[in-house]
Amino acid sequence: MHAQISFIDGQFSLIHIPLSLYYALLQPILRTLLPPGSRSPPSTSEPEGLLEGLSVDKKHGFLNISVTPIECSVVCHESWAKNIFEPAIRHLPKDAVEQVSISKDTYIVFSVSSAGMEAGQRVIDLTAPLAMAGIPIFFITTYYTDFILVPNKDRQTVSQALLSRGFSFSEDDSAYVSPVSFSPTRSRGPSASNDPPPSPPPSSVSELQARTFSQLKKRNVVPFVEPGLHLIQCSGKELPRRNGYTSPPNGSSNHHENTWLENIDPKFYVGLVSALVQQPKFLSLTLAQDDAPSLLIDKSLLWLFGNSIAGDTDGNLVPIFLDLVDLPLESTGIVCGVAGKLVDEMQLEGTADPQASELSYLSTARAGAVILSSEASEVALRALCPLLEKDEES
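That's the CASTOR ACT domain-containing protein sequence above. Prediction below.
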């Protein structure tokens, strides 16, 4: 079994929107989600005329929109942040402007396709070398693919770190790695600041993990779950194609350039917009060039989508949240360190159902979420809470 890694074209920005300003910025969120069609080329005097990061069929190379109980977070091409979000933010009251943030540094994104690999070990193999090299990371698990975000300025260091751990890059920036290429230990930890690091990178995975919990404890980060919140990981259904093309709706002739929106059941997007308009308790959408739309969503909202989604709709996932608002932006990859600890705990507990110990991950601008089965989430909280309890004398 191997993992295939590919860098996605472009540089990306990370946007933090506090929930109190969600509705004030819903219009640019929807505008980014549903870019204009190709009826005519947009004028360069309009924002859309300056936008990059779209394929010929108007699909984002990468886009993540996440709404959680902590924040709304958007990862989009830097041109969308500059030309769509920045103008909308400038129109907010001054005190509100200061609450929204767009990352000063841009990020690169690489995708990880690794069908058949155990989820927890896969993430450890991929992210531990980067964390050991002191590279900040964000990790996003989707229905099809895993995505890792790293600062653009660290691209060369990323390549060197992966090469040193057995990755082999081809000329087109793809890489392959065995799922057992890293250290035999299953523990992993956070990434530290690289500009410059406050201390040398850890010398071992156990030291790296210890730093994770020390930093979280110092900043009073306490893991929590939202009562009654259960998630489903699913995907938008693709429409059947004829001779390689999606059939035009209602039998209409296809005189216009085909767009990616026409390849997905329209009920999926009606449901998606309906969910976003009501400010969901939890929704994470990922669009990527080579995948159908991937959705991690509050199970109570499934009815909005009808039969337009594919996946295990009977599943029952529970997110454990970490509010990282008081940590430096470059430290948000710390959620992966927590996840590494949980891989250990799942192995020690030995759940009856092997799939019950499967882990998913979501890094957002100011928060992190580790997503497990309902059974495993109880084990996880029992493991994490004692590690992050404040000392009595502090």
